[in-house]
Every structure is written in structure tokens, then in C-alpha cells.
Design goal:
Layout: H1 2-6, H2 10-27, H3 29-76, H4 83-102, H5 110-132, H6 136-224, H7 240-274, E1 277-283, E2 288-291, H8 293-299, H9 308-314, H10 321-325, E3 331-340, E4 343-355, E5 361-370, H11 372-418, H12 421-426, H13 429-450, E6 458-461, H14 462-474, E7 482-488, E8 492-495, H15 497-514, E9 519-527, E10 531-538, H16 545-548, H17 566-576, E11 580-587, E12 590-598
Parallel strand pairs: 7-9
Antiparallel strand pairs: 1-2, 1-5, 3-4, 4-5, 6-8, 9-10, 10-12, 11-12
């Protein structure tokens, strides 16, 4: 028999137990029928008699208090402003509102009701008559004597009646509680027995079902933790067998789908991370922002959306990268600047909408590519083309000017030798010869810009070159008020001595003229990782911001007597050495030019 019951389905077991419990509970109804009838009788007495009596007694008591206050106000105001009419209106409104809600007063309170009406009659008849005769003092005396006495007597009667009703209500409630207590005792005993039986049966049924379910739950948690593909052990319980098979199938499908999703996600991420394009995706629905590898390398691995306002504020007025990144506009191929420390980059930026599978806009995609090198190459090409044209023009002009200039210089030299001193001073021959010498220097610079000549490299240390040329400047009259400070780390470099001397000559001459031939010039040099860096520093007034971008343009000068060829020649010679020269810093306190030479290959 037990084996047969064990093979029943859970539904059958529960159904049979419910039938038994229903039969037991139904048998209890016979014991409560009599109790319910008695409770109903007591309840009717309470609701139909005691409760209305208490309500009306409380109402009349509150009415007496309010009428007493109304009398006090009437006495204080000499019964002005239609006192009796207000009293009667108050009386009628109170009675009407009570009867609308609770009906007429119970018959047991007829005596008190008549006494209330007699009290009102004293006001409406006696007091009203005295007021109409303008006998205010008599009306006041009547209220303080007869009316006040009747009111107190009526209040005492109401209180006595209330105590009687309350006592009757308490008796009924005690009886009601006794009936309930008797029924509850029987109910508790019967319920306790039924619950005990139900607990025993439920425990046996649940034990046969909960153990395999708990085991299955543990195995499901193992699967939910990410172990897709794990199988749940099948149970002997009839209802659990199909569920177990479905869970195992689901686990297998989850593993297959998860593997596909992971592979697809990794494949897509590898594609995005392999692109040399920075991609920033903003999902407005989830409030998330994601970056591919290129974007993370540029913007930082720990970049967060909350950092944008701070970085935008730091770059306000100078860089548009953060402005276009936060822009809501859709644009294509816009060149913007981005600064990372001391390095400045140019990016070609675009922005498009991010849509979901329903083609609804859920965010935006901002992507950018580094075109700094391309921009630099384009600028270099334009500059090279410009220099080539200028060089050809300069070379042609220099040759055309040099021939007649040589003739003029020769004749002026003969005149200087043949004329007397007074005539030489009269015709300013010395000044003419000096200016011709200056013109000849300009022609030499033009020819040097057009064709500086192939460098002749040899291993030389820059400190040796500076030691050779510095005394030449220090001994000149123009440089007497300029102090030189040199600290060059000894480092042999492959350089052309003549061109390096020319570069230093041009820089020293520019600094001297900028400082009005008074101040200090410092030359520092040190070896860094792959380069040898030289800083040329003066304490002049600095370079104006609008002139900084055109310093190396040929014939661009801010000096009255300058040719604008010194820095372009220096730049071209540095390019011959595979190095660079650029303005590092300039302010009112001075200017710093920086030169960078490549180290010899065997020493890098």
C-alpha cells in the first residue's frame, strides 16, 4: 500500500489531502450554528439600541455645552445681532443633521428629548419675550438662574442615562465575548488537531518532492553561475522528469548561444580594436559610453563620461576636440585639435547616429583618425614648394644684382682711393661701401637659402664648435653688454661644422637684436633618449603670439633692418642634419629655441 501511494503523482496526493481536510473543517460548522444565532441577537441589541442611544446622548451633551457657550456670548454682547434667531437656527441645524445620519432618537430617550425641547422653549419663549421688551437685565437674570439650573439638571440626567446605556453595552459585549470565547476554544482545539494532521501529511508529501527539487535547485544555481551545458540529474518524481529534460536542453542551448555571442562579441571588438580609428559610442538609453582600443590609448584607459566637462573646461577656447565630442550635431570630416600634455595632434572627426534594431536613435557614434603626420607632411610639402620657388627667385635675383653691384663696389673703391678725405666725407663713401657690403650679405643669405650646399659631416662635439665661434661675438663692440652662459654636455655628433656655426650665428644675432644688444644668452645641451637637445635662451621681450606661427617663413621679419632669412636658413640646415629647430617657449621674460639632433646610430 505504501509503495502504491509513493507512486502517486503530487497532484493526486494534494487532492486527496485537501478532500480530507475539507471534510474535517466542514464538520465544525455544525458546532458554530447555535453560537452564531446567539451572537446575532446580541449584535442586534447593540447596533439597534445601545449604539444609537450613546450617539444621541453624546450629541445632546455636546449641544448643551455649545448652548451654554452661546448663552455666555449672548450675555456678553447684550443679546445683539438676532440672538434668538441664531439660537433657533443652531438648534434646528443640529437636529436635522443628526436625524439625516442616524434617524430619530430611540424611544427609550423620549423623556430626555422632551426635557431638551423644554430647555429650548425657555429661550425661544421667555428669553425672547424679555429681549423683545428690551429688558436685557431680566433676560440675563433668567438665564443665570432658571435656564442654568435646568441645563445642569438635564446634563446630569444625560450623564446618568449614558452610564446606564454604557453598563448595558458592557453586559452585551461581555456576553458577546463569552460566546466568541467558547466558539474559539472549540475552534482552536479542532484546528490544532487538523493542523497537526495536515503538518504530518504535508511533511511526508513535501519530503518526497522537496528533496529532488532542492537538489535540482543547487544544480540550476551551478548552471546560472555561468556553467552553461551542465546537466541536471533526472528524478523519479513523475512531475519533475519533463522539467529535468527541459532544463538540460535549455542548458545545452544556452551554452551554444553563449559561445556564439562571446565569439561574435570578441570578433567585433577585435575588428574595432584593430582599426586605426578612435571610436566613442554613447548609448543614451543605458547612459553608457564605450571606447575602442585606439580611443582608449588616446583618451586614457580609465576615461569616464563624467570627465568630459572637466577636460572641456581645461581646453576652453583653445581646443575643439571636447566640444565636438559632446556636440549633438551630425557632421563629417571636421579637423580639430587635441592636446595631450605637450603634444598637439590633428584629428579628422565625424559623428553619426546610433540606432537600434528598430532604427530608433539611441545615441551617437563619434569617430576620429589621427592626421597629424599627414598635416605635417602637407605643410612640409607646401613649405618646400614655397622655399623652392623663393629659392629660384632669390638665386636669379642674387646673380642679376651681384654683377652690377660688383661694378659699383669697384668704382666706389677707386673713388675712395683717389678722392681727398674731405670729398670722401662729403659723398659719404664709407657709408655707401658699408651699405653695399650689407646688400652683398643679403645676397649671400639668399643664395644660401636657395642652395645651402651639401653638408660635409664629421664627428664633432657641439661644445667645441661653440667654443670656436663665441669669442668672435664677445670681442665685437655690439656684444660687449651681452653675457653668455654655455653648458653643453660633451657628445660627438655627425654634423657639418660650417652649417652649425651658421645656425648659431643666426640665433645669436637675432637674440642680440631682440635684446637691443644688452642682456644674457644661455646655451644648454644634454643627451636624452634618442636625441641630443640644445636650448638657446635669451631674456629679451619675447615674441608676439601672432608672429609665432610665421617665424620660419622666408622674408618674414619684425625688425627694421632684418631680411627674414636667418631662421629659414637655420631650419633648412637642421633638416640637412635630420634634426629640427622650433620655438619652445616665449614670454615677456625671454625666448627659448630648441634644437634636436639625432644621436649616432651606435650610441642610441
Amino acid at each position: 500500500m505504501n509503495e502504491r501511494i509513493r507512486k502517486w503523482s503530487l497532484r493526486s496526493k494534494i487532492f486527496i489531502v485537501l478532500l480530507l481536510l475539507t471534510a474535517l473543517l466542514s464538520s465544525l460548522s455544525f458546532f458554530f450554528i447555535n453560537s452564531l444565532g446567539e451572537m446575532n441577537e446580541v449584535s442586534e441589541v447593540i447596533t439597534e439600541d445601545n449604539v444609537p442611544e450613546l450617539i444621541w446622548l453624546s450629541h445632546w451633551d455636546s449641544q448643551l455645552m455649545m448652548k451654554e457657550e452661546l448663552m455666555e456670548v449672548g450675555i456678553e454682547t447684550a443679546f445683539c445681532c438676532a440672538f434668538v434667531q441664531r439660537y433657533e437656527m443652531f438648534r434646528e441645524d443640529a437636529r436635522t443633521s443628526m436625524e439625516e445620519v442616524y434617524g430619530a432618537p430611540p424611544a427609550s430617550l423620549e423623556t430626555l428629548e422632551r426635557e431638551m425641547e423644554m430647555l429650548d422653549f425657555l429661550i425661544l419663549n421667555q428669553v425672547n419675550g424679555l429681549i423683545n421688551l428690551n429688558n436685557i437685565e431680566s433676560a440675563e437674570a433668567f438665564i443665570l438662574t432658571e435656564y442654568e439650573t435646568d441645563l445642569n439638571a438635564l446634563r446630569a440626567g444625560i450623564e446618568a442615562e449614558r452610564q446606564g446605556v454604557t453598563a448595558a453595552l458592557d453586559d452585551h459585549q461581555d456576553r458577546f465575548e463569552g460566546i466568541i470565547a467558547e466558539a474559539l476554544q472549540l475552534l482552536v482545539l479542532a484546528t490544532a488537531g487538523i493542523i497537526l494532521i495536515a503538518l504530518i501529511i504535508s511533511y511526508k508529501i513535501s519530503a518526497s518532492f522537496s528533496r529532488p527539487v532542492e537538489k535540482m535547485g543547487d544544480q540550476l544555481q551551478f548552471i546560472a553561475a555561468g556553467n552553461y551545458g551542465a546537466a541536471v540529474e533526472e528524478s523519479d518524481q513523475l512531475e519533475l522528469a519533463p522539467l529535468t529534460r527541459s532544463i538540460n536542453l535549455m542548458s545545452f542551448e544556452l551554452k551554444r548561444s553563449f559561445d556564439l555571442l562571446v565569439l561574435d562579441k570578441m570578433y567585433r571588438e577585435q575588428i574595432l580594436d584593430s582599426l586605426p580609428i578612435g571610436i566613442v559610442t554613447s548609448d543614451e538609453e543605458r547612459g553608457e559610453i564605450s571606447l575602442n582600443k585606439t580611443a582608449r590609448d588616446i583618451m586614457g584607459e580609465d576615461f569616464r563620461k563624467t570627465q568630459i566637462p572637466h577636460r572641456q573646461e581645461e581646453a576652453a577656447g583653445t581646443r575643439r576636440f571636447w566640444e565636438v565630442l559632446t556636440s549633438e550635431e551630425i557632421f563629417q570630416n571636421e579637423k580639430v585639435k587635441y592636446e595631450d600634455g605637450n603634444e598637439e595632434y590633428t584629428y579628422l572627426c565625424s559623428q553619426s547616429l546610433l540606432v537600434n534594431e528598430s532604427q530608433e536613435t539611441i545615441g551617437k557614434v563619434f569617430y576620429f583618425i589621427d592626421i597629424t603626420e599627414t598635416e605635417n607632411l602637407e605643410q612640409q610639402v607646401r613649405k618646400t614648394e614655397k622655399l623652392a620657388v623663393i629659392g629660384e627667385l632669390a638665386a636669379g635675383a642674387a646673380h642679376e644684382i651681384r654683377n652690377p653691384l660688383a661694378v659699383i663696389d669697384g668704382f666706389l673703391g677707386l673713388m675712395k682711393q683717389s678722392l681727398k678725405k674731405e670729398d670722401r666725407e662729403k659723398f659719404h663713401l664709407s657709408l655707401l661701401l658699408k651699405e653695399i657690403e650689407r646688400i652683398n650679405g643679403i645676397i649671400e643669405d639668399m643664395l644660401l637659402l636657395a642652395k645651402p650646399g651639401a653638408p660635409r659631416f664629421k664627428m664633432v662635439s657641439l661644445d667645441k664648435i661653440v667654443e670656436e665661434i663665441l669669442p668672435l661675438f664677445e670681442e665685437t663692440l655690439e656684444m660687449q653688454d651681452i653675457s653668455f652662459h654655455v653648458a653643453l654636455e660633451p657628445q660627438p655628433l655627425w654634423v657639418d661644422e660650417r652649417q652649425i656655426k651658421q645656425i648659431f650665428h643666426n640665433l645669436i644675432r637675432n637674440s642680440s637684436e631682440a635684446m637691443n644688444k644688452k642682456g644674457s644668452i644661455s646655451i644648454f645641451g644634454e643627451r636624452k633618449k634618442y636625441i641630443y637637445c640644445v636650448e638657446f635662451i635669451d631674456d629679451g621681450p619675447g615674441i608676439k603670439p601672432e608672429e609665432k606661427t610665421r617665424l620660419f617663413d622666408p622674408f618674414r621679419t619684425t625688425k627694421k633692418t632684418g631680411t627674414g632669412l636667418g631662421l629659414p636658413i637655420a631650419e633648412q640646415m637642421m633638416e640637412n642634419h635630420s634634426g629640427t629647430i622650433y620655438l619652445h617657449k616665449s614670454s615677456e621674460k625671454g625666448t627659448i629655441f630648441r634644437m634636436e639632433f639625432p644621436l649616432p646610430v651606435e650610441e642610441e
